[in-house]
Design brief:
The chain is an all-beta fold. The chain has two helices and 28 strands. A four-stranded antiparallel beta sheet has the order 1-28-27-26, with no helix packed on it. The chain has a four-stranded antiparallel beta sheet with strand order 2-3-4-5, with no helix packed on it. The protein starts with 6 loop residues before the first helix and ends with a strand. The mean pLDDT is 89. One of its GO terms (biological process) is RNA metabolic process. Its main location: nucleus.
């Protein structure tokens, strides 16, 4: 069950739990996801998938993946996750580029989804258990969990990013860091909508996601910029720009709060930023205590908390005191 949240509530959030990962190897967290019921968090480095139970804030498992490595990891359902690879050419190029369905209970792979010929950079799982992946091979592949081959293939002229609408009936694709297209799951032969935006020099779009209510689309970039679009018209609504006084050092993620007018962004500093879209982009920072950059953020509407991550994971809850 999710609740409404305001910026006043968010200002009361404090770090309640810290999970240190891979301190010996100094690896950073690459991907975060919550299970649909909010009870479990997965957070992976290039080699280890950490499974954390939210209720007791204890690690349920630390699952190694030394052979293929780990890129993006998303929950498929409560017991399985979809993994992309971090290694791509050794020892088996075909399997290294495949998506993998991992059983969290047995810690074994149930299925390999083979079809991409270059690195997978975008992954989305719909509410009705469909899978979509975007790759540097300039394709989006649509998958059914029951088959290891794609059921449909969409080709583009550049690397695509993909995101399912919360209903699962539609999905968005963006490519060339300027073009957004909307497709129906049931009718893939034509686009429902398309819009081309100005392509900014040096700005590469890095991820795509819908708001919880499906009314907004968010694009993160490699240049301290998060762009918010209307999901219906595809018009640009907001441009959230981070601290341009700092030298650029890499990708910064963002997420919507349950109320779509509030956006959390990661940071190249040791704090997270919160933006209120309905108040002329009013922004404030939450000082996290991270010693290093914390580029990843993700909100859990079921438990009304969020996590920030870099070289460790901080779990934030509202402090009523």
């Amino acid at each position: 069950m999710s609740y409404k949240i305001t910026t006043k509530d968010i200002k009361k959030f404090r770090v309640a739990y810290t999970k240190y990962v891979s301190m010996e190897s100094q690896e950073k967290i690459k991907s975060l996801d919550f299970s649909y019921n909010g009870e479990t968090l997965i957070a992976n480095t290039n080699k280890i998938l950490n499974v954390i139970k939210i209720d007791d804030r204890l690690s349920k498992a630390a699952i190694p993946s030394f052979k293929y490595g780990l890129g993006i990891v998303k929950f498929f359902d409560l017991h399985f996750v979809i993994c992309t690879s971090a290694k791509h050419y050794f020892p088996d190029p075909v399997k290294n580029l495949a998506l993998r369905l991992l059983d969290l209970d047995s810690e074994g792979f149930k299925r390999y989804f083979q079809g991409h010929t270059e690195k997978v950079v975008s992954l989305s799982v719909s509410s009705n258990y469909n899978i979509a992946s975007g790759s540097r091979d300039k394709t989006v592949l649509l998958w059914d969990e029951r088959s290891d081959t794609p059921r449909r293939k969409l080709a583009f002229d550049s690397t695509p990013l993909v995101a399912y609408h919360p209903s699962g009936e539609f999905f968005a694709v963006c490519h060339d860091s300027s073009i957004i297209k909307i497709f129906s799951r049931k009718k893939l032969s034509e686009e429902i909508n398309k819009k081309e935006h100005e392509k900014l020099p040096g700005v590469e779009w890095t991820s795509l996601k819908y708001s919880n209510d499906g009314k907004l689309l968010m694009v993160t970039t490699n240049f301290k910029r998060v762009i918010i679009f209307c999901a219906e018209t595809l018009d640009e609504l907001h441009n959230l720009i981070g601290n341009t006084n700092l030298p650029f050092s890499g990708f910064v993620d963002a997420c919507f709060a349950p109320e779509s007018n509030i956006v959390f962004t990661g940071s190249e500093e040791n704090s997270n930023s919160v933006w209120c879209l309905k108040k002329s982009l009013k922004k404030f920072d939450l000082h996290s205590g991270h010693e290093n950059p914390c580029p990843l953020v993700l909100f859990n509407p079921a438990y009304m908390l969020f996590v920030s991550a870099g070289d460790n994971i901080h779990l934030w809850i509202e402090d009523d005191l």
